[in-house]
């Protein structure tokens, strides 16, 4: 049972013909949209991502959860080609359905992919929108460059997009500047820009952390509705486990750049098997939480030389070999788990 | 009872005059921005209260009034029955000693050029709470009370992590032996595990030392865990108060219920969010300020502003059509009231 | 919980300190070079009597206007037969003394005026701001000339004149820093504790203002040296036969076409010192300026 609403209301937006064609094809595709295999990312001496693997089906939502420094934003940036050699070292592979290997893709390849097949929504909308240009210009630029629309066609489409993300009085908004909008509205604009060329994969990096909780609910609902409608997939980067349980089909729990547990969010979060997932869950405040069980203090080490599980020094169930040998990600009880001594 | 009341706010109002430009060179009529409008609040000794609200709710202004940093434009703000803004001399010293503040930005609230020892010892010295001989031991004791090793005394702020700095800020707040701790979003922006540690610490301290706690937050879970009482604010007014358990289990005010619905809960379906955004506080239309977004609003809601009326000694809300008791649950009622998205 | 920041330096320095030094040398080559040059100037200025072959005002008409690398005088002689190497080294004394001295005067004056402007309000602040504006309206050299005309010539007068001319820029930066520090939470927190205004200024505001001021001062030393050399060049700085570089350049002006080294040697020394001071000043600022976010 999927824990979210399906909004089947027909969209007001009429998609260009070539996208509708692709739509019917994608429904028949069985292969996953995104596969990430043993992705490693190094920065200098540090191993920021350590053999991260997961896959994402079309139309599904996936949550990358973990604390700060776990590598979730890093994965998102790598998946859209914003973190590449020579800044960082990339190992392993990841690919979108229909493209080649992306870990070593060229600038030209990424230029063709970004905005068209992969788009990103950032955490701080105010910082992600250029304060010098009007909203209209920022939405119309990708429409004209990537979709090749003429000026008036782009303007019409921009108005449609703004209305579809819930901004009323769209024509007036086109000539507004980002600072004239509230945080929630800025985030909606960013979502509109990201969705303007109908990408297959939407990356949302903590899209609501900077917003009030009632606005957060609106924005999450908006992202889910829009991606459902366009049959796109969405990866959420979140630190809020409860929110992840509400809006993600699948979940990947990260610690120190390593995947510790991944699988359907219901399975993983209802009965976590990895001690870290359990500990994270124990720190989440529900309205009737009587006692919190905090984790012992500490932070993961990113040295490339640590051979074992990076959680070993804080883990209440650590065995001798946990720090020495890295547990492989293995299928257990409906999810994938990397632990020598699971719950 | 009056001897143990620490803070008392009586119909406090804080209004700012705003001049708006009506054209490139013309300045139009002045509008009035009521950051606080008719706030009534009471905090007893040893009581823990959470002030919950989103941005624009006026909680920051409320805090500043309570600390004496701003004077209310109307109404009275009292500490131990004395007007806060006009405290002078020994009364003011007592106020500064008894009221300790923990900031949201822990790093910003600690002087980067001072060592941890000096930071924590500053209130000790200022209030003359210990002799120079015992300073070292007192600081060490305070640091260990908040779970920090004594070696940290010699370090500077830049060497500590965010979580550790929160603890230092708490230690400093405790140094003056206060009777009330005021915290402004003291745990937001932290990782959940650090947040859990700090919250556990605060709860322990509050219970052990019998401190009153005034905790400003936007997170209902934090409010539920830490505080016995809760006050929900919207656009400068308190719309509901009561014990945390009661209010969160069966909210009366539609805004409180909207906040509950919007708070993430494990596996709960994402309910219909509250439509629209917080309206501009300048020149609000008459009537209940929540009426524009309320799914239950009726004609009288747009006519007059409901006042915060107590329904029992511990419960009060400001609504003409509160949620009926039968319908009051933390989840949106079945059938749903699908209010169109804004 | 470490934030991953994009830095261009390698992730970690290797365990050996020699390796660390090698990395530092590679990454900050110019800084190291400039620091060494500056150190050389300072040391030679301090140990001038032991380093110089001749006296600074010792004339030897038999070997006047000798080009550099000609026998006994390594850098040549000027029109009075004085050894240029000696005079240049002694000149470093004057340049550095005036540079540091003037900056000290300017920084102290700027600190007082800037703090007063930043901490006061109302009419006092307005008046101080206009005063600072007036100081800033005149170019430093012009102001220095004006002060010299009041005070007269001489080393101490030059230091004072250049120093006072620097008060304007310093007070502007100090005021900006004071305003920024005043708005920080820890200042408000101290106020909430009941700590008096004076104690807050002394304990919280001043330390946070002095540090950026010191960083600014290192950058302005080169400017002070330049201004003082300008004064000497114009003939209103130190009096001849003091071996001041500006003076030496002025004296060598008439001989530029056939004895360019007389002005060239002190000129080159001045240029090198200014560049070294600028690079070191920048390096100090990069390392220590809290506004740049790196500490």
Task: Walk me through the structure.
The complex is a heterotrimer of chains A (343), B (342) and C (295). Helix content of chain A is 33%, strand content 20%. Chain A has 343 residues and is of the alpha/beta class. Chain A has a domain of 168 residues: Rossmann fold. In chain A, strands 5-6-7-3-8-9-11-10 form an 8-stranded mixed beta sheet, sandwiched between helices. Chain A has a 3-stranded antiparallel beta sheet with strand order 2-1-4, covered by helices on one side. In chain A, α9 links the parallel β6 and β7. Chain A is globular, with a radius of gyration of 21 Å. Chain B has 342 residues and is of the alpha/beta class. Chain B has one domain: 3-Layer(aba) Sandwich (Rossmann fold). Chain B is 28% helix and 24% strand. Chain B has 9 helices and 12 strands. In chain B, strands 6-7-8-3-9-10-12-11 form an 8-stranded mixed beta sheet, sandwiched between helices. The N and C termini of chain B lie far apart (47 Å). With 295 residues, chain C is mostly helical. In chain C, α8 runs antiparallel to α9. Chains A and B meet through α8, α9, α10, α11 and α12 of A and α6, α7 and α9 of B.
Distance between the termini of chain B: 47 Å
Main sheet overview of chain B? 8 strands, mixed
CATH superfamily of chain B: P-loop containing nucleotide triphosphate hydrolases
Which topology of chain B does CATH recognise?
A: Rossmann fold
Number of domains of chain C: 1
Total strand segments of chain B: 12
Describe the protein's topology.
The complex is a heterotrimer of chains A (343), B (342) and C (295).
Chain A (H helix, E strand, L loop, with lengths): L16 H12 L5 E10 L2 E11 L4 E5 L6 H8 L9 E8 L10 H7 L4 E4 L3 H4 L6 H11 L5 H14 L5 H5 L8 H13 L5 E5 L7 H17 L3 E6 L2 H7 L2 E6 L2 E7 H6 L4 H9 L46 E3 L2 E3 L6
Parallel strand pairs in A: 3-7, 3-8, 5-6, 6-7
Antiparallel strand pairs in A: 1-2, 1-4, 8-9, 9-11, 10-11
Chain B lengths: L4 E17 L5 E18 L3 E5 L6 H9 L6 E6 L2 E2 L5 H10 E4 L13 H11 L8 H11 L16 H14 L4 E5 L7 H18 L2 E6 L2 H7 L2 E6 L2 E7 H6 L4 H9 L46 E4 L2 E3 L25
Parallel strand pairs in B: 3-8, 3-9, 6-7, 7-8
Antiparallel strand pairs in B: 1-2, 1-4, 4-5, 9-10, 10-12, 11-12
Chain C lengths: L16 H11 L1 H18 L1 H4 L32 H36 L2 H16 L2 H12 L3 H28 L2 H8 L4 H37 L11 H7 L9 H28 L7
């Amino acid at each position: 049972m999927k824990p979210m609403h399906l909004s089947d209301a027909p969209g007001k937006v009429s998609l260009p013909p070539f996208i509708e064609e692709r739509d019917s094809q994608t429904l028949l595709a069985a292969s996953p949209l995104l596969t990430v295999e043993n992705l490693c990312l190094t920065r200098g001496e540090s191993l920021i991502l350590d053999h991260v693997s997961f896959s994402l089906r079309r139309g599904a939502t996936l949550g990358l959860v973990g604390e700060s420094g776990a590598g979730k934003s890093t994965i998102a940036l790598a998946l859209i080609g914003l973190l590449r050699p020579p800044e960082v070292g990339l190992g392993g592979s990841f690919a979108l359905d229909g493209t080649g290997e992306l870990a070593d893709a060229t600038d030209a390849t990424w230029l063709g992919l970004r905005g068209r097949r992969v788009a990103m929504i950032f955490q701080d909308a105010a910082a992600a929108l250029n304060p010098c240009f009007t909203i209209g210009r920022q939405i119309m630029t990708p429409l004209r460059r990537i979709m090749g629309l003429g000026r008036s066609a782009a303007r019409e489409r921009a108005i449609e997009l703004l209305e579809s993300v819930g901004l009323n009085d769209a024509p007036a908004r086109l000539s507004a500047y980002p600072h004239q909008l509230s945080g929630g509205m800025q985030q909606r604009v960013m979502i509109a820009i990201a969705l303007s060329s109908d990408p297959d994969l939407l990356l949302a990096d903590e899209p609501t952390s900077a917003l009030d909780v009632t606005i957060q609910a609106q924005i999450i609902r908006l992202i889910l509705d829009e991606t459902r409608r366009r049959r796109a997939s969405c990866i959420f980067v979140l630190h809020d486990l409860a929110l992840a349980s509400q809006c993600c089909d699948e979940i990947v729990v990260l610690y120190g750049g390593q995947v510790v547990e991944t699988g359907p969010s219901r399975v993983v979060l209802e009965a976590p098997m990895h001690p870290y997932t359990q500990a994270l869950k124990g720190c989440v405040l529900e309205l009737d939480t009587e006692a919190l069980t905090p984790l012992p203090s500490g932070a993961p080490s990113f040295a490339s030389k640590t051979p074992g599980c990076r959680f070993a020094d804080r883990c209440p169930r650590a065995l001798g070999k946990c720090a020495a040998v890295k547990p492989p990600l293995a299928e257990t009880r409906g999810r994938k788990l990397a632990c020598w001594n699971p719950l | 009872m009056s001897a143990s009341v620490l803070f008392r706010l009586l119909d406090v109002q804080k209004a700012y005059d705003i001049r708006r430009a009506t054209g490139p060179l013309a300045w139009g009529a002045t509008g009035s921005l009521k950051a606080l409008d008719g706030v009534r609040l009471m905090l007893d000794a040893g009581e823990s209260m959470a002030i919950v609200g989103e941005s624009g709710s006026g909680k920051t202004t409320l805090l500043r009034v309570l600390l004496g940093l701003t004077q209310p434009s109307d109404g009275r703000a009292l500490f131990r029955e004395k007007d806060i803004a006009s405290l002078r001399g020994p009364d003011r010293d007592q106020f500064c000693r008894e009221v300790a503040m923990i900031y949201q930005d822990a790093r910003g609230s600690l002087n980067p050029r001072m060592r941890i020892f000096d930071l924590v010892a500053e209130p000790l010295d200022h209030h003359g709470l210990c002799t120079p001989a015992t300073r070292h031991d007192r600081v060490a004791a305070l640091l260990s009370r908040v779970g920090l090793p004594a070696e940290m005394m010699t370090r500077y702020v830049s060497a500590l992590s965010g979580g550790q700095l929160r603890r230092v800020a708490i230690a400093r707040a405790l140094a003056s032996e206060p009777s009330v701790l005021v915290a402004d979003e003291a745990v937001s922006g932290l990782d959940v595990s650090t947040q859990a540690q700090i919250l556990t610490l605060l709860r322990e301290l509050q219970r052990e030392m019998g401190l009153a706690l005034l905790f400003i937050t936007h997170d209902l879970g934090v409010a539920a865990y830490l505080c016995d009482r809760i006050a929900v604010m919207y656009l400068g007014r308190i719309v509901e108060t009561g014990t945390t358990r009661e209010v969160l289990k069966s909210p009366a005010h539609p805004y409180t219920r909207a906040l509950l619905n919007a708070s993430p809960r494990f596996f709960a379906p994402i309910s219909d969010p509250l439509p629209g955004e917080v309206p501009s506080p300048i020149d609000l239309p008459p009537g209940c300020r929540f009426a524009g977004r309320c799914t239950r609003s009726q004609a009288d809601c747009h006519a007059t502003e409901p006042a915060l009326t107590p329904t029992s000694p511990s419960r009060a809300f400001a609504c003409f059509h509160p949620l009926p008791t039968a319908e009051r649950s933390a989840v949106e009622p079945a059938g749903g009231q699908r209010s169109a998205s804004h | 919980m470490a934030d991953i920041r994009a830095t261009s330096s390698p992730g970690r320095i290797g365990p050996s300190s020699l390796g660390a030094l090698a990395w530092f040398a590679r990454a900050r080559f110019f800084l190291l070079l400039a620091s060494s040059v500056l150190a050389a100037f300072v040391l030679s200025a301090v140990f001038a009597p032991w380093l110089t072959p001749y006296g600074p005002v010792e004339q030897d008409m038999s070997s006047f206007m000798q080009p550099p690398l000609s026998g006994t005088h390594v850098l040549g002689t000027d029109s009075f037969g004085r050894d240029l190497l000696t005079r240049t080294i002694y000149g470093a004394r004057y340049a550095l003394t005036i540079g540091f001295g003037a900056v000290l005067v300017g920084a102290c004056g700027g600190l007082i005026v800037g703090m007063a402007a930043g901490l006061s309000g109302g009419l006092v602040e307005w008046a101080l701001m206009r005063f600072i504006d007036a100081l800033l309206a005149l170019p430093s050299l012009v102001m220095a000339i004006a002060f010299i005309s009041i005070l007269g010539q001489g080393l101490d007068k030059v230091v004072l004149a250049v120093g006072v001319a620097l008060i304007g820029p310093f007070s502007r930066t100090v005021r900006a820093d004071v305003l920024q520090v005043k708005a920080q939470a820890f200042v408000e927190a101290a106020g909430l504790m009941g700590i008096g205004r004076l104690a807050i200024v002394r304990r919280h505001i001043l330390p946070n203002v002095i540090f950026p001021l010191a960083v600014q001062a290192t950058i302005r030393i080169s400017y002070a040296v330049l201004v003082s050399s300008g004064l000497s060049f114009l003939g209103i700085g130190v009096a001849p036969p003091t071996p001041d570089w500006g003076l030496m350049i002025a004296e060598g002006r008439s001989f530029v076409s056939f004895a360019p080294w007389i002005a060239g040697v002190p000129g080159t020394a001045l240029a090198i010192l200014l560049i070294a001071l600028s690079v070191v000043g920048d390096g100090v600022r990069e390392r220590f300026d809290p506004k740049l976010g790196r500490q």
